[in-house]
Amino acid sequence: MQLTNRAKQVDRRPLNFAEKIYLPAVLKGMGITFSHIFKKKATIKFPEETRPFSPVFRGLHILNRDEEGRENCTACGLCAVACPAEAITMDAAERLPGEEHLYREEKYAAKYEINMLRCIFCGLCEEACPKDAIYLTETFAPANYSRQSFIYGKENMVIPHPKENPEAFTKAKGLIDERKAKASQQQ
Ligand code: SF4
Ligand code: SF4
């Protein structure tokens, strides 16, 4: 009894002359190959060429600073509460006298980590943040061999300091402005 209708009888007739010399089959194959030369390519030359991201693409996170270089995050924990993947962990600390140039408010995140293997890039952390501190960008985590390397800390996410690296700071701010513009278009 046949379980599906996909069974086929094997053709056991002896090969004729044309089939024995394989030439018609080779020419047929080459015809198919050459016909593809004039068709639009489905592939691109990555990494030299890249495809544009979708306008709603969400990638790796960055943590924002203000124009004076102070970290915006106050370790309030709202992003961690909003995160459906429980990917965010942080340790809050109190700003000490003399640290006003480092942190914008009295509390700051001494440790802030996102597990990119857990993250589903939903953007809820960005939406939950009341301090303009966290944004998702159009980049993705590079491949790696260890799980540990996918746990991103502040050293991976806080944007460059405006005085130490003004060019990189301006570029990062540009990414944030782009993100804000796209978010407002989607509303
Ligand atoms: S993008 Fe979504 S899953 Fe990823 S850390 Fe933010 S809230 Fe969590
Ligand atoms: S990123 Fe925003 S929501 Fe998350 S702890 Fe910092 S200030 Fe709070």
From TrEMBL:
**Which cofactor(s) are needed, names only?**
[4Fe-4S] cluster
Entry-linked PANTHER family: NADH DEHYDROGENASE [UBIQUINONE] IRON-SULFUR PROTEIN 8, MITOCHONDRIAL, NADH DEHYDROGENASE UBIQUINONE IRON-SULFUR PROTEIN 8, MITOCHONDRIAL
Which reaction is this enzyme known to catalyze?
A: a quinone + NADH + 5 H(+)(in) = a quinol + NAD(+) + 4 H(+)(out)
Q: Which HAMAP family match?
A: NDH1_NuoI
Return one Gene Ontology term, BP aspect: aerobic respiration
| Species of origin | Lacibacter cauensis
Q: Where is the 4Fe-4S ferredoxin-type domain?
A: 61-93, 110-139
> What role is this protein assigned?
NDH-1 shuttles electrons from NADH, via FMN and iron-sulfur (Fe-S) centers, to quinones in the respiratory chain. The immediate electron acceptor for the enzyme in this species is believed to be ubiquinone. Couples the redox reaction to proton translocation (for every two electrons transferred, four hydrogen ions are translocated across the cytoplasmic membrane), and thus conserves the redox energy in a proton gradient.
Q: From the Swiss-Prot or TrEMBL record, state where the protein is found.
A: Cell membrane
Q: Which UniProt keywords apply?
A: 4Fe-4S, Cell membrane, Iron, Iron-sulfur, Membrane, Metal-binding, NAD, Quinone, Repeat, Translocase, Transmembrane, Transmembrane helix, Ubiquinone
Q: What is the protein named?
A: NADH-quinone oxidoreductase subunit I
- EC number of this enzyme: 7.1.1.-
Residues that hold [4Fe-4S] cluster 2 according to the record: C83, C119, C122, C125
Q: Which GO terms describe its molecular function?
A: 4 iron, 4 sulfur cluster binding; iron ion binding; NADH dehydrogenase (quinone) (non-electrogenic) activity; quinone binding
* Positions annotated to bind [4Fe-4S] cluster 1: C73, C76, C79, C129
**Gene3D superfamilies from the entry?**
3.30.70.3270
Membrane spanning stretches: 21-38
